[in-house]
Amino acid sequence: MPAKILIITGDAAESLEVLYPYQRLREEGYDVDVAAPTRKTLRFVVHDFEPGYDTYTEKPGYTWPADLAFSEVDPGQYAALVIPGGRAPEYLRNDPELRKILKAFFDADKPVAQICHGPLLTAAVDSLRGRRVTAYPALELDMQAAGAHFEDTETVVDGTLISARAWPDHPAWMREFLTVLRAKAPAS
């Protein structure tokens, strides 16, 4: 039976940061579930960089069904966790069911891949203190406030925590995550 990976997300997540790891991990032979606050069709967004803007722009993205509500997740059934970015982490960090899930993965030292604004979730459960991370560069002060050492580079590996800045860093992020994942939890 293939190992299972959990992606936690919600509305306004960055489309590419959910769907790229979802498809890449399935391609690798893993079963992948998407969990959200409730079982529903999620509405993702597309963030892009356009000349003349001081920050990224946001447009409607793809829709995707959540397989599970956070309250239905048994972290013990999953080998690893993926935390996409976008705006979703800004409100998801307030969900007590999600914080229980996050804590379980870190307590068990399971592989966790986070990208962009995803580290706002791991900061919310105090799992960044003393660790090296990257995130969307605008979060540097947030990462430092969470006790992390911020590095502005495409990917950072700190034990079983693999982080990246944003979707342009996908190749390096998934390459490093899969290296850790294959060692800790081969697909089959």
From TrEMBL:
Residues 4-178 form the DJ-1/PfpI domain. It comes from the Bacteria. It holds the Pfam family DJ-1_PfpI. Coiled coil: none annotated. Belongs to the peptidase C56 family. NCBIfam families: PfpI (TIGR01382). This is Peptidase.
